[in-house]
Predict the structure of Iodotyrosine dehalogenase 1.
Amino acid sequence: MFHKNRMEAHYSRTAAKKKFAPTAGGRERDYPNDEDDPDILVPAIPENTPHIPYRPLQRSDEEVLQRSREYYELMAKRRTVRSFSTEPIPQEVLNNIVRTAGTSPSGAHTEPWTFIVVQDQETKTAIRSIVEEEEDLNYTKRMSRQWVTDLKPFATTATKPYLSDAPALILVFRQTHSWREDGRKRMHYYSEISVAIAAGILLAAIQYCGLVALTSTPLNCNSRLRDLLSRPVNERLELLLPVGRPHSDATVPDITRKPLEEIMIKV
Ligand SMILES: Cc1cc2nc3c(=O)[nH]c(=O)nc-3n(C[C@H](O)[C@H](O)[C@H](O)COP(=O)(O)O)c2cc1C
């Protein structure tokens, strides 16, 4: 799919170099270039991987329609909750929701994700302290005044009690690349969108089983949280999700969603 033969590889590399040169900020590319290409090309998973028949469940049109309605209704009830009950969640539930996220599609089946599930109180407290310290700087110095203003309806502040209250924190790390068994670098194509899809599936699984989450992206916390959790440098923190049950006093902003006509264009 990516490099069928050397000629194609050459032309796609030349185009990739022009289109996807690294930015001044050193942002990694989704595509390889010459330096990444070894002399002998061997797929990262065996070329002779067998193809087996795909046998989906057969459902009638009525059943498909009914399920589409039910799933929409379930997902429309999902809300970001910022106040959690401390009630623990069974380990098997956490295993199953992460397992579900791991069924996500990914570029060339690279599965570029690591889900760190923190239930240990001391570690949650350490995470909270790092995030609050950084968020204090974010709110006062790093974020634009417009950004801080746009957050006002959500009543978010640098204080994050949910990070120590929620029974579990799931930290979603994106692997920018990995290593093959022969020690060579394994490219992770489209790792950003792959992890975003997996995170969406994770949120859907959390909603389906009746729990809630807070989708958060702690600004400037990547290296400190990565070190705290002893993660390697090829992993970047993308999301921090407190997961659990809502606090009995939890409230959510009364927002509306764009109607179908605004988000879907039929061609
Ligand atoms: C990528 C992303 C980052 C977010 N970051 C934060 C965050 O750092 N803190 C927070 O309280 N909410 C955060 N949110 C939650 C949004 O504010 C929330 O999804 C939005 O207001 C819509 O509300 P709903 O999730 O209840 O539908 C984030 C959501 C997304 C998708």
The CA atoms of residues 46 and 180 lie 12 Å apart.
